[in-house]
Amino acid sequence: MYLQQAREHEKPRSAGELEPGALFLQVEVSEQFLYEREHLLMGLSYSLAKAARADRNLNDRDLIAALTAMAKTYETLVNSGLHYESPTTSAAQHLVAAELSNMVKQYREAEQKHMGHVRLRDSEVLKALVFLVRMAHGRTSGRPKSRAFVDFLFAQFPENKSVIASPDEAESRIITP
Known about the structure:
Layout: H1 2-8, H2 31-36, H3 38-54, H4 60-80, H5 91-115, H6 122-139, H7 148-156, H8 167-173
Helix pairs in contact: 3-5, 3-6, 3-7, 4-5, 4-6
């Protein structure tokens, strides 16, 4: 709780603190894209939150590294057509990247099922990943163990509480006059 309150008073990081290639400035992400591919962005964000919940030792740097590796992979694919997977430095980052890849695969399968064809292009996946990389850099404090971006994701996707009450809970909710 104290860390969350302290984040409110933290100065935002300047873009000058990052290396120029970290934000993929050559990739344009328009507002129209964000509107049209909102479901893709939400799915990728949810995958990040799910991975962070599964491994509580993950921090912002791990998520940013996994997002960056995937963005570089898709950038290579879009620009040259080569399937080259950028390496991740840790097993945790690899699991995050696998979770993101699985979500993209499920998204494409859902499009195929509902529309009869897949509209999602690799360039759109790249734009979505770049947007998340930029958002992650904007939300983190930059400290080695920072979890500000992770906490932001947790706030966007709270843990599911069952809407259906168990029989014991249902009895306690009944109000009798």
